[in-house]
């Protein structure tokens, strides 16, 4: 959703290291008792290890990943076997969070919904990351007309608010038919195609800074080709802010999937999605709040975990905040 | 400045054409049979079909149709919905409500986000700072599909403070809770932005100079730090106002507020393609204009910025 876009964009002001605060800049002053200077990533790792919030977020993402891969580890109930005689059944030994309005096991539905959410999030982050890296690095490195073209394309994509554009794209997919897998792939493509711009901008600005550094000139003089310079010498400089952006984007893609499914243009039943469950349970919340609370908690915790993960990594890599 | 203005304006026009073209192409190029959609389940006889095809200009090439749409759009004519109501009228009814909602959200953001950000920025590392940082992180992490129903449950059903749904003609009181829900995401971002910018300015040379001249602390904060810190916040709020209108779709749906977002989700449900395109086009225009104004405001607010 576009709100997340702006969140990520404002985080950038602090995430993008200026020339002075570049985490990988050589010769960064370190504490005196250390004889061998540590690398910036080792510094960041030391910083991260001490943050409990980082470990909590990592634990949540690990559980979510496990749940997506083997949902049967967490529940023995079948999310698709619903019986109206269980309608709005209260929590019991058989179903720890009871049953929803269709008589489906609330907990099992949420557990099995994890897979789709994570698939969309990871897939869209992968697409966005690759596109952002490709256009960011080449645009910043080659400059000239190619950079102008890339920047204009970024302007155009940013001119479309994420949620609105995704709605229109997904509506188009709906018109052309297609099964559940087709919708899943379409969601990944749409979110990835609309979400790469922030990453591209961050990488582009890092590349422009790095391009002027002496070691890049040195590599060029030693005869290194464009590809090697970009991959080995320039990209590592942009990696820290890139990882932060992509981690946070992953969270926001998961939220966007849920929002689109909530609005009825993302995944459709019988696919399992937290957004679908929230949208159904919302109408009956006066009667029974639990079917709404469970998928909401799953969704909020997952998104939160990725946002916190990104945020703590950003802080660890930002020397100004130490 | 003038050259920048012209360039920025040309850029906006290009983005406008590209975005509307994408939206239009996606919805119409291969988007099913609009005449059958108009007729619903009933079969359409050939004479009627030929008549309607001519009337709606469907016999013309795609680019011509796009051009007609754009010229109509620029003349303020958005066409009709599938049931024949002018889209302009639909929007005219919905806009005031969405604008009220967005204004409530922005006021809420300024009241809480900016104030908390200033305090946190001045007292970095304090308990207040750390608590608000964690709280804002949580608010950023909770999507509106979770926050809106949760707020509705807690504040209207569990504790009957606010009305559950707004209904046909919402008063300001009806819109208060949805506005706060809508604004809560910007609150977190605004707070973090303010905090970062205040604490950065506190370390600036001009603040050190002001302090060493013996200027009292309150004056240093009020004049030198705050006025410089507010520049990025004002621009953030400007952009946010544009995106809030688009973001209202979930909130308006949950609280049953007949604003623009509600109309859009209704159009999605009823497959009303012209209405979807109309609303999205107008929202994109607002978004672009808000961005342009904000860019120009930057130069006005901060004379140090000179555009080439």
Note the topology.
The complex is a heterodimer of chains A (322) and B (308).
Chain A (H helix, E strand, L loop, with lengths): L1 H14 L24 H10 L2 H18 L36 H37 L1 H15 L3 H14 L4 H16 L1 H15 L2 H8 L4 H38 L10 H9 L7 H28 L5
Chain B lengths: L1 H27 L5 H6 L6 H10 L6 H13 L12 H36 L4 H15 L2 H15 L13 H31 L2 H8 L4 H39 L4 H10 L3 H29 L7
Helix pairs in contact in B: 1-12, 5-6, 5-8, 5-10, 6-8, 7-8, 7-10, 8-10, 9-10, 10-11, 10-12, 11-12
Write up this protein.
The complex is a heterodimer of chains A (322) and B (308). Chain A is 69% helix and 0% strand. With 322 residues, chain A is mainly α. Chain A has a single domain (50-75, 84-321), classed as MetI-like fold. In chain A, helix 4 packs antiparallel against helix 5, helix 4 (106-142) runs parallel beside helix 8 (197-211) and helix 4 runs antiparallel to helix 10 (226-263). The longest helix of chain A is centred in the last third of the chain and has 38 residues, at 226-263. Chain B has a domain at 95-301: MetI-like (MetI-like fold), CATH 1.10.3720. Chain B contains twelve helices and no strands. In chain B, helix 11 (260-269) runs antiparallel to helix 12. The mean pLDDT of chain B is 82. Classes of the chains: A mainly alpha (322), B mainly alpha (308). The interface between A and B is large, with 52 and 57 residues.
